[in-house]
Amino acid sequence: MEFAPLLATVLTAATPLLLAALGELVCERGGVLNLGVEGMMIVGAVAAFGTALHTGSPLLGFVAGAGAGVALAGIFALLALGLRASQVPAGLALTLFGVGLSAFVGASLVGKSLDPVG
């Protein structure tokens, strides 16, 4: 087994998790415990894939994924900061909502693939 392909695979798989951890770190430094990051990530991923699949545009997929993540972050901000709800149950509820919504919406996308870019 060669080391270079393994390292490339690990770095490719770890990048989204590292970006999510970096975003959570920013929240933590601001005094907010955002446990809904996983829900935001998975809804953004399903929105990005579905949009890119239906439009054929990776750029529109990226925009849709970012928009979906921002929408869920806005819901969390409204609950935790605007309505002063407890951050732990609000974040956990957002994670459960995101996982359920992505499973519901993404069920029709299972088994479909995109053409590689480039």
Number of strands: 0
Count, helices: 4
How would you spell out the order of helices and strands? HHHH
Main sheet makeup = none
Shape: globular
Which regions are unreliable across 5 or more consecutive residues at pLDDT < 50? none
> What would you report as the Rg, rounded to the nearest angstrom?
16 Å
Strand content: under 5%
Nearest-integer average pLDDT? 93
Ends: how far apart? Answer: 28 Å
Q: Please estimate the helix content.
A: over 70%
Which structural category fits the helices and strands?
mainly alpha
Keywords: Cell membrane, Membrane, Transmembrane, Transmembrane helix
Membrane topology: Multi-pass membrane protein
InterPro entries: ABC_transp_permease
GO molecular function: transmembrane transporter activity
Structural overview:
This protein is an all-alpha fold. The protein has a domain at 34-111. The protein is 77% helix and 0% strand. It has four helices and no strands. The protein has helices at residues 3-29, 37-55, 58-82, 87-106. Helix 2 (37-55) packs parallel to helix 4 (87-106) and helix 3 (58-82) runs antiparallel to helix 4 (87-106).
